[in-house]
Amino acid sequence: MLKYVALRLVLLIFIVFGVASITFVLSRVLPSSPAELMLGGRPTVEQVAAARQELGLDLPLVSQYFAYIREIFSGDFGDSLRTGEPVLAEIGKRIGATFELTTLSIIFVLLIGIPLGVLSAVRQNTALDNSTRAIAVVGVAIPSFILAMVLQLVFNGMLGWLPLQGRLDRLISLDNPIETVTGLFLVDSLLTGNWSAFQSALAHITLPVLTLTILLLAMVVRITRNSMVEVLKDDYIRTAFAYGLPKKSIYYRHALKATLIPMLTIVGLTYGNLLGGAVVVEYIFDWPGLGGLLVFSIIENDYPASIGATLFLAAIYLLINLIVDLLYFVVDPRLRSV
Amino acid sequence: MKQSNQWVLATTFAASLLLPSVAMAETTITWPTQLFYKSMNPAVVFDAETYVIGNLYETLFLYDNGEIKPRLAVKWEKSEGGKVWTVKLRQGVKFHDGSVLDSAAVKKSFEYTRDLGKGAGYLYGDLETVDTPDAETAVFKFKKPIAFDLVASGQYGSYVIGPAAIDNGDDWMNAGNSVGTGPYRLSKFETTKITVIEKFDDYWGGWTEGQVDRVIQPVVLEASTRVQMLKSGEADVADVPISQLKALAVSPDISVSVSKGWRNSQYHFNTQKYPTDNKAFREALTYLWDHDTVQKEIFQGYSTRSVGPVPASMWGHGSYQTGTFDPQKALELLKASGIPEKDWKIEAMYSNSNQEQIDAIELFQANAAAIGLTVELLPQQSSKTYLAKARSLATSANMHSMLWYPAYPTPSDWLYSQYKSREGKKGAGFNLAYYANPEFDMALAEAVDAEGISIEQATKAYKAAQDILMSDTPAIFFADNTRITVHSTKVTGFENSSNPAYETLFIYNLRK
Amino acid sequence: MSETMEHDQPSESRAPFRLRAGAFITDNRLFVVGCLIFSVVLIAAIFAPFITPYSPSKIVMSERLLAPNWEHWAGTDRFGRDIMSRVVFGARTSLAVGLSVMLLAIVIGGPIGLISGYFGGWVDTILMRISDVFLAFPPLLLPIAITAALGPGLWNAMFALAVSWFPWYARIMRGAVMRIRKELFIDAAKTMGVSHMVIMVRHVLPNSMTPTIVQGSMDFGYAILAAASLSFIGLGVRPPGIEWGLMAATSRVQFLSHYWTALAPGIAIFTTVLAVNLIGDGLRDILDPKHGEDS
């Protein structure tokens, strides 16, 4: 097991370097004048020269690359052009919002998606199964932005129940600001007993979470159902049926256990898709997370911030996948001897 | 339980009798904006920041419908043909930090603006010194005659800034602090997020009931969100696209206030970028602008046709034919311009913050396409990135959108800031036409100097300068805009809060 | 559709064609539905100028923001342009984008997978680890970052999507090659002194195309969705280009009060992607029955 974990970590380091290299190409090699992009505004010739020196653009590409890698691994992403603050601080302020959004979404997706997938597999070719499969097929064809706009139209435009955008009422963030404990508004407002802020935060997060949940449900249902169907074909399950063990115990004790590994894979995949989907969803709902930061900093030509956000989102994804990989061992002791 | 409740009620009741102001709810106005304010230093700003700064700081004089009225100055007189101005200051005026307005503070403020040389600091390039014979008298001495009463009543570069703000510097002001004499003080400023101003209790004008205690300006880029905020009552005032007015007007809780404005809309031609560096080519383009449709459908009547670079409501304006929509004529002129047909391709850049500018250029694009001219659109999400790109020739486009209102109430700023050559200065400033014509510069300098002598003389000189400008076709002048404020019916007093000389709304005069 | 029929022919019994066709349709109902919808979209795209009642770019300001009616089935946008005509023309862009992204990704990924799988060893390790790096980004993130660096525009968006998609094809191709390279006839060719190049192109490639085609048809829909998303956030097609994602984006100013400006492009993307996905699923079941078990 240790050997596998070690190998996995070595690979991870390699990939992290690769990701950093791609962002290096994107930020320093492809743009025609990175120094001017870095400066924004209307730089003077001296400013550009100074920035070129500071960025090391006068050095050979190889030494530029090493300098870049050194900076990134020491957590120095430069200053955001939009706000003038260090990019890392900007990311720190926004990571809670993304975490809150994606975590809530994944909880709902798994809570609804897995039982639905299992039921669908157990009762194959019933009406329930057919409609679940229909949802799975239809769900993956919905564009995230159209879904978000439809939800906005219904729940804000027509019913007026939920706010259109944002994370908190503006008056609340001024008059009853949430004390930061965890960075998650729902949790912090409850911990500090800030009831009005909790209500506002809940109202604001509903539509973005609903959007992401609906978007990813299809995928989760589909994979769960397929892996459950596979497992049910397995010999030992058939044997269990043959021995007349109670159905419930077979499904939930044995079959579901056997699907845990594919489920973990689903979690990893879903999280990746969530982070990707969150980019567009955060943009539409003006959700102050990393995805929104990425889009707005790109639109605003805020190079340091967009590169920082890209790297961070990729890093989170890698981390989640690493955790998922390691969890395989916890779930399946047989793998430990590998 | 019951008893304690009664007790609370009783004390609250008592408190409300004793201290009415404590129990009174704060009156807050929420005013979402699509604009990023870049700075809160009155000596630096030269853009939309005036919406905020105009309520925090005050000028010496107030321009009101052709008349110059006292504000921080109560009496003034000019001597030596307009080179020396002696100003008596209002007494009992306090800055936000509690310090007292005196001549030393005024001197420090004007010299600071001049020495910094940013924003509209150029207005005081000829200010030699400010003498302070006593605490309530300031004597301004200029190298040349100047209409100081006009210049210093303007909305840029002439605010009296408290000494503490100057000492603490730019960063301190941008951290959400103000030391002005205005009715409001800055309490929060985050450039991309939110600006909050709060009532300044010791304002010299005093306070009466119903006035606004606080204005919150969150940055909301999405027009649909601003519209929705108005509808739901979350916003009290908002800038919304004109195309949305009809849908909004249905609601009994929303009304539209209309007032006179000096803002005009233009698209500058880049006179230094191929192919718009060709004058005949530029002239051809003006025939592709469908003025009637723009007025009628895009501005929906909330504008009038431009008569030239200076709006018709300002003295000294010309009366030019700003273009006829005639694609056939345009085609003929394009062919005659000498630009080969394969190069009939231009780029137009604009900021996404104004929907009418976007709609107008898309209409232009379609009309151009009909005769084989390609217009590539380069929308920019905010005015900040827009200006950053447009100001450097390398990243600029062939056409740049521009909304203009004057630094001070004369024609000078429309011409000076937008069309005077930028020789020896960094970037294009607001001269996004990259226009440089020494003859025009000279005529303009004459006109500005004439302001210090007499309005009649200045009018004549301004017209002469505009004649030169118009013959070079540096822009499409397409609308003199009516000022529209869309707001909740709960807020009143808009007619007293707008003055064409100031783009801001005077919050002090609003009631809620 | 015709290929699949051909594919069916040799393996099926000698039943009359009509019977076989009927059986095929009942067995693959969703696939057929997908094909039908897709044909409609395809025909609309090809014959757009002939079937649309209005020119998609014709501005009629006096008819702006009209609700759907008999003259304008899907209403008009804020320039008075006919939304239905624009949606029909938009099919051209979306289909072209989907197809180009897929082909480009195959063109980049295929050879990499081919070389990787054929040679194995350190070549394989290096190429596959490089592909892994591209897969380390959450979906849509890399295309966004690439278009940000290259600048917005249709071509850049297509390139960016293809670059972030190629590793899937590299993997598929590699897998197929590895399965096949141990077969006897490859070894025979090697011992006969046939060059690597010839073996790869003549023998390996044709035998590994099926999974690539299946994956490609499945990805076609994703490519359309991703391209529309890029346009939506302002990194893809720009005006005067006509594209569904862009139409939805520009409708955001007024969609709450004029819902139809977003409705038609939304339905268009959804139905097209749905059709393409149904075809993809169907193709997988038909061409690669081992893999496809259901839905």
Q: What number of domains of chain A? A: 2
Query: Beta fraction of the residues of chain A?
Result: under 5%
Number of strands of chain A: 0
Element order of chain A: H for helix, E for strand: HHHHHHHHHHHHHHH
The CATH topology of the largest domain in chain A corresponds to MetI-like fold
Tell me, briefly, the overall form of chain B: globular
Shape of chain A: globular
End-to-end gap of chain A: 6 Å
Biggest interface goes to: A-C, 56 and 49 residues
The level-1 CATH class of the largest domain in chain A: Mainly Alpha
Structure classification of chain A? mainly alpha
Helix fraction of chain A?
A: over 70%
Helix content of chain B: 25-40%
Task: Compile the SSE list and pairings.
The complex is a heterotrimer of chains A (338), B (512) and C (295).
Chain A: H1 2-29, H2 34-39, H3 45-55, H4 61-73, H5 87-122, H6 127-139, H7 144-158, H8 170-175, H9 185-191, H10 195-233, H11 235-242, H12 247-258, H13 260-284, H14 290-299, H15 303-331
Helix pairs in contact in A: 1-4, 1-15, 5-6, 5-10, 5-13, 5-15, 6-10, 7-10, 7-13, 9-10, 10-13, 13-14, 13-15, 14-15
Chain B: H1 2-18, H2 20-23, E1 28-30, H3 50-56, E2 61-64, E3 67-70, E4 73-79, E5 84-89, H4 103-116, E6 127-134, E7 137-142, H5 148-151, H6 163-174, E8 184-190, E9 194-199, E10 214-218, H7 223-232, E11 237-238, H8 245-249, E12 254-259, E13 264-269, H9 279-286, H10 291-298, E14 303-304, H11 327-336, E15 345-351, H12 355-370, E16 374-380, H13 383-390, E17 399-404, H14 412-419, H15 438-451, H16 455-471, E18 475-481, E19 483-488, H17 494-497
Parallel strand pairs in B: 1-10, 15-16, 15-17
Antiparallel strand pairs in B: 2-3, 4-5, 5-7, 6-7, 8-9, 9-10, 11-19, 12-19, 13-17, 13-18, 14-18
Helix pairs in contact in B: 9-11, 14-15, 15-16
Chain C: H1 2-11, H2 17-27, H3 29-46, H4 48-51, H5 83-119, H6 121-135, H7 141-150, H8 154-181, H9 184-191, H10 196-207, H11 209-232, H12 244-251, H13 260-287
Helix pairs in contact in C: 3-5, 3-13, 5-6, 5-8, 5-11, 5-13, 6-8, 7-8, 8-11, 11-12, 11-13, 12-13
